[in-house]
Design goal:
about 425 residues, mainly alpha, 3-stranded parallel sheet, 3-stranded antiparallel sheet, 8 strands, binds tryptophan
Length: about 425
């Protein structure tokens, strides 16, 4: 099959911390809900190779992996329905990272935000620009590209800070496709606009780096105590309070229905005391979390069961990664020395027909061309602003062949009419091979 009918959604979670309510509201809950959509195939993984870039404490990496895996499952992710795995259980990922490394411009990586920020900070402090910067940090986007491209993900839900990485993965995919034929799907970032940014205890965004988080599965007593520590103004009970800028109210909203939130807003206006409001917030959160907390505890206390779940996920993932990696190795020339010279190389013979190459030029536009087995160009497209449009034009030519030419013609450079017989034959071959795939 060359065409995947279902949309593949993939995202990774770096295993360096303990999940908190902000992670739950911003990532876990929306992703688990989305994973129930039967029109999509979900790939969710623990990015533990990425964690090594940020953390050199083995026990913390291991603990965080267990906690994050247990949190996702306890929050309703169904490992039977989706592919849920640990990045480091897939040896094809670092293997693909190398192939991508070889088609990625060093200049592209120089421009990655995280690397640039480290360099700018060093320069401002008068240090060597690369002081304390590991090659791992520099290579972060390539490893992430391998995560995404390996599974031909169409959509990658991420935070805003990760958009640049998805764009880089697209660049890597186009470069590779240009050099070695259509192998990779060009992924798109998905930013969940409607998801609330949860404030933390001090009112700033809830984040490990501000040390203002409420752990998702802390025991109920601890959660109640932490909620009691959320900053408020000093208005006394009976005084009307404003929901605007109230961290407590925002957190409440992230868990409550519209009616519940309206009732809370009314209670604010009526002068509810902060102690009572905090109690209401605790009860509302606990109503959602308590049933999952038990499941979480059971999983945390049974790490070998968690190992089993993750290894079963890795098996599913590798059922795709292993054969794909074989094709990719073949495509770049890492292949049996006898292959191509033997009659059983029919697959290769098939690959030697004309094919479409999709690529991006320095002008930032996306292009494609149809080349024959010897690399001679039979059709050349004009520039497209989006690779999707280029892909659609290719799709038309692949399914309808010569018959699609009148429609697609405005998107193409004029072709050499003396080549038309070869062009017609090449298009016929491609449409025929599409049908038998
Ligand atoms: N870099 C991502 C983050 O910090 C985690 C990640 C690693 C990821 N590989 C990925 C996300 C692939 C999406 C797809 O959030």
């Amino acid at each position: 099959m060359t065409s995947q009918l279902r949309t593949r959604v993939l995202t990774g979670i770096t295993t360096t911390g303990t999940p908190h309510l902000g992670n739950y509201v911003g990532a876990i809950r929306p992703t688990v809900n989305a994973s129930r959509d039967s029109q999509t195939d979900g790939f969710y993984f623990l990015a533990d190779y990425h964690a090594l870039i940020k953390c050199d404490e083995p026990a913390r990496i291991q603990r965080s992996t267990l906690e994050i895996a247990a949190s996702w499952i306890a929050s309703g992710l169904d490992p039977e329905k989706v592919t849920f795995y640990r990045q480091s259980d897939i040896p094809e990922i670092p293997e693909l990272t190398w192939l991508l490394t070889c088609v990625t411009g060093k200049g592209l990586l120089n421009r990655a935000h995280a690397y640039k920020a480290a360099v700018d900070k060093n320069s401002a402090a008068g240090h060597d620009p690369d002081s304390d910067v590991t090659a791992g940090l520099f290579m972060y986007p390539v490893l992430m590209g391998a995560d995404i491209l390996m599974f031909k993900a169409h959509k990658v839900p991420v935070g805003r800070d990760q958009i640049q990485h998805i764009e880089m993965a697209r660049d890597m995919a186009s470069s590779f496709n240009h050099l070695y034929g259509e192998q990779f799907v060009l992924p798109e970032a998905v930013i969940e606009e409607s998801v609330a940014l949860l404030p933390g205890l001090d009112g700033r965004k809830m984040s490990k780096s501000y040390d203002n988080t409420i752990p998702l599965f802390a025991p109920a007593a601890q959660m109640r105590k932490q909620i009691a520590g959320i900053v408020t103004d000093s208005k006394a009970p009976g005084e009307p309070k404003s929901t605007e800028g109230s961290a407590l109210f925002q957190i409440y909203q992230a868990f409550a229905s519209a009616e519940e939130s309206a009732a809370m807003a009314k209670a604010y206006a009526d002068g509810i005391g902060w102690g009572d409001a905090k109690q209401m917030l605790f009860e509302r959160i606990d109503r959602e979390i308590a049933p999952m907390r038990e499941h979480y505890q059971a999983l945390i206390h049974n790490p070998s069961q968690m190992d089993k779940i993750l290894l079963a996920g890795a098996d599913k993932a590798r059922a795709l990664a292993t054969p794909f990696m074989r094709e990719l190795r073949h495509a770049v020339g890492l292949r049996a020395l006898s292959s191509g010279a033997t009659p059983q190389a029919t697959k290769e013979a098939k690959a030697a027909v004309a094919s479409f190459k999709q690529y991006r030029e320095k002008d930032g536009q996306f292009y494609f061309k149809l080349v024959n087995a010897l690399g001679k160009t039979l059709l050349q497209s004009l520039g497209f602003s989006s690779p999707k449009d280029a892909g659609q034009a290719i799709g038309r030519l692949q399914t309808d062949g010569w018959a699609a030419l009148p429609d697609v013609k405005p998107l193409l450079e004029p072709w050499d009419s003396s080549q038309e017989p070869e062009l017609a034959a090449a298009l016929a071959e491609i449409t025929a091979s599409k049908k038998t795939d």
